[in-house]
């Protein structure tokens, strides 16, 4: 697996909100990335406490969906780009990320309604400029871009990602929190997927579906488009709205069509690797961004199958998912390890830990359980960061 975390290339940090007006920074970021031969790290900062170790929240899902399309746009232009999600105070988090990367440049947007002196007094921009470990470039956004919709628009996100190719995945179980938008009704719906001005017939239909959910009655699968991390409703807005209201952590059956950016070779490689992994293991709920992750996970499942004396790989995979993968994923989110590897998901980090454990065994002869290997891997990362900070001027 390619270890991009240790790359010696320059990095430019681009904090983004989810509003279209924030995208005014991207053309400037492209120019600077070409001039400096730098990798772009697109950062979105969520409110403190938004990142839940146990589950993906709707706010995190919307941010990941947006950044995935922005990364696809930049890669289509021939640039290196990754995304990073953090939660915490905005200015402090931007500065912390800039130090840890480390960043060669930070690109910030300006408040279009303020004069320059007032921009630089007590604002996030002011705080970042005062404490940034690198130069800060201010970009005046285009106010005509607007602030966007409460739900994500598939059409707008698809346009940002560029030319797409559909691949039908069939029936899947999807986490409701990862359904971030609509294919055709984004202007008609509120953030809860309910109509902004429901007709009596629509309200009656919604209540019928809601009651069916409460009674545990089977309902037809919804139809979703998948783009990057996010899912968008093609058909079944009432069912999604009811599921979100009754249980935000719920899962829902869906017929899924995934759209892949034609210009993103890495995304296609990851998709092909995921298809082979799913066919071999039957696991369809594991997502990774690094193509090599899937083969390493399959090796872990095969080792687990042998240790447990199970005859069938798919049977072993189901048990491994519940007994090994889910606890590791929770601990990775709890330790915030994804902040150390922009663009990667817990599955990618589990694959990293497996590689670290193999090197440890070759060096020491000691075989570690994956859980213990994770803790030592995290401690080693922390020690490395502490040493780097001590050496910083």
Automatic annotation (TrEMBL):
Signal peptide limits: none
Domain (UspA): residue spans on this chain: 11-140
InterPro entries documented for this protein: ParB/Sulfiredoxin_sf, Universal_stress_UspA, UspA
Species of origin: Thermalbibacter longus
Family note: Belongs to the universal stress protein A family.
Sequence intervals crossing the membrane: none
Protein's name in the database: Universal stress protein
Gene3D superfamilies: 3.40.50.12370
